[in-house]
């Protein structure tokens, strides 16, 4: 089969679409997926750069989500059939013609969504659902989403609105701010301005979904309301920062950080089932629309990584596998 290979950690030019050994047959509780499309995520860039290695035993091929059809099933898999369309949450291996996945991390795509668009949905849906559950986001609360025009952000805005939250978001251009408002954000703030004061003027936030990390840590805690929860899912702005524990204690605040990729198989299977039961009906009913997407052939993976890295992209980049 063919897959994206990497000569060494580094820039996009280290990636190539090349022939590799065929995958091993699926184990008893696994499924072999013939890949139709794979979503491109920030974590993919980090892995390419050598900063986010796959968990032990996982495929070293980049790619945390894909869509396609089931090509083979393990001996113990009884509820999935060869030929069925699916989406899969991966620890690695999505940038390829085939991927072997634990069966619990393979679910049908949302009804009414084409298979290519579905290839960029599961990772963001699983991340947003799991983190908003950990942060206990509730109806009537104010939800601050950083990077609202990205793949995670554009989904989180809509999911927050569907839960009954009031959503504030940050983005980096007038076009992206308008896009965030179209998705349902009550307030969209240019992060090049003093977004801290702007969020304070809105009364602060009960829950914050943050992809930036250390650079925003102090500012996030400053805008957090009493009993607020800061949920960190990325570290584009660094991994180390200082917390004023006195200020956090005075607010009775919580700081939560979690990676979806490193969770045990059982947890990821439970999250995928929750996505299937809770999120997919919202997508099928049109309450969550497919975020803006850019489709590119997987042979153009170098340009896809450059585009995401530039910060100019809106929504999700999806690699199509012919």
UniProtKB/TrEMBL annotation:
Protein name: Putative PIG3 family NAD(P)H quinone oxidoreductase
Annotated organism of origin: Naumannella halotolerans
Taxonomic lineage from the root: Bacteria, Bacillati, Actinomycetota, Actinomycetes, Propionibacteriales
Disordered as annotated region, ranges: 1-26
Entry GO MF terms: NADPH binding; oxidoreductase activity, acting on NAD(P)H
PANTHER family in alphabetical order: OS02G0805600 PROTEIN, QUINONE OXIDOREDUCTASE PIG3-RELATED
Keywords per UniProt: NADP, Oxidoreductase
Annotated InterPro entries: ADH-like_C, ADH-like_N, ER, GroES-like_sf, NAD(P)-bd_dom_sf, Quinone_OxRdtase_PIG3
Domain Enoyl reductase (ER): 10-319
């Amino acid at each position: 089969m063919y897959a994206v290979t990497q000569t060494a950690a580094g820039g996009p030019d280290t990636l190539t679409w090349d022939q590799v050994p065929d995958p091993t047959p699926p184990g008893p509780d696994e499924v072999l997926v013939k890949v139709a499309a794979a979503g491109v995520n920030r974590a993919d860039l980090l892995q390419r750069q050598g900063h986010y290695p796959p968990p032990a035993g996982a495929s070293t091929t980049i790619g945390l989500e894909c869509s396609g059809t089931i090509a083979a099933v393990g001996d113990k898999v009884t509820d999935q059939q060869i030929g069925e369309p699916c989406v899969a949450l991966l620890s690695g291996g999505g940038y390829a013609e085939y991927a072997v996945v634990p069966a619990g991390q393979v679910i049908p795509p949302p009804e009414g969504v084409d298979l290519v668009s579905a290839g960029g949905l599961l990772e963001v849906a699983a991340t947003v659902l799991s983190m908003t559950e950990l942060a206990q986001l509730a109806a009537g609360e104010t939800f601050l989403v950083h990077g609202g025009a990205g793949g995670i952000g554009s989904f989180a805005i809509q999911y927050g609105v569907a839960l009954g939250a009031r959503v504030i978001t940050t983005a980096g251009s007038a076009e992206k701010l308008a896009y965030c408002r179209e998705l349902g954000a009550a307030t969209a703030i240019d992060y090049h301005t003093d977004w801290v004061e702007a969020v304070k003027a809105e009364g602060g936030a009960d829950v914050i979904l943050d992809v930036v990390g250390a650079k925003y840590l102090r500012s996030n805690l400053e805008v957090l309301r009493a009993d607020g929860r800061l949920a960190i899912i990325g570290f584009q702005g660094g991994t180390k920062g200082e917390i004023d524990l006195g200020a956090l204690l005075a607010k009775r605040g919580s700081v939560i950080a979690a990676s979806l990729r490193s969770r045990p198989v059982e947890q990821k299977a439970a999250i995928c089932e929750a996505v299937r039961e809770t999120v997919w009906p919202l997508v099928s009913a049109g309450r969550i629309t497919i975020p803006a997407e850019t489709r590119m052939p997987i042979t153009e993976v170098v340009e896809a990584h450059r585009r995401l890295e530039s910060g100019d992209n809106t929504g999700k980049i999806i690699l199509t596998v012919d």
